[in-house]
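Input/output pair, single chain:
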Amino acid sequence: MMRLRWILLLAGLLLVASAIAGVAQPHFGRSATTPTTAPPDKTITVTGNGSVTTVPDRATFGFTIETHAKTATGALNQNSDDATSVIAALKAAGATPANIQTSQVSLMPQTSQDGSTITGYVASNSVTVQTGLGLAGKLVDAAVGAGANGVSGPNLDVSDQSSLYRDALHKAVDDAKLKAQSLADAAGVSLGGALTITEGGSATPLPIAAKMSAVGTPIEAGTQEIQASVTITYSAA
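Output:
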């Protein structure tokens, strides 16, 4: 009997010890989450600007040939003859065929003041020409001399605008970094690397600052400023 009591007591102690051990054991079923790289606590965002000033070397003109006649056929035929003469004169003056483009052909009736009667027809042919600035004035004179009775332009630009824009972008990035560094110094923090860069910019004509006269009708080249801007966010610590 005494031996049975000792066996029951020992079994109870073992059960208690086992329960305590179960509570104390770690639960390996849960996995710890590895933290990802956190974004920087401090950032500095600035906008930088850069520009390159150049002299335009290309000009684009629009020439209009307008004719009037009693009949639609007569107006269109006369207009075709005059437009052909203008195009031939442009080529003879140095314009290349690849840079001459017909931009519009139209034929419209003309009516009496009350709109009840057709009194005639007007035909129009518009030609767009792009040329080097040195030929611009000569082409205007040639087109008008051959029958063009409307001139629009010039629209001046530069042939190497893409490379000039890239130069302006470099200057904009440098400007942004200088601004960011100044802000970091003022705030007492260290400037880190660029996190994001956003581009923006365009070519903007400026008032005349330089002059270039072409042969014939004078054409003032002026200057054109190629502008670029970037917005950059830097890390800071």
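The chain has two domains: 42-55+160-236, 58-157. The beta strands are 42-54, 58-69, 100-111, 118-132, 150-157, 191-205, 224-236.
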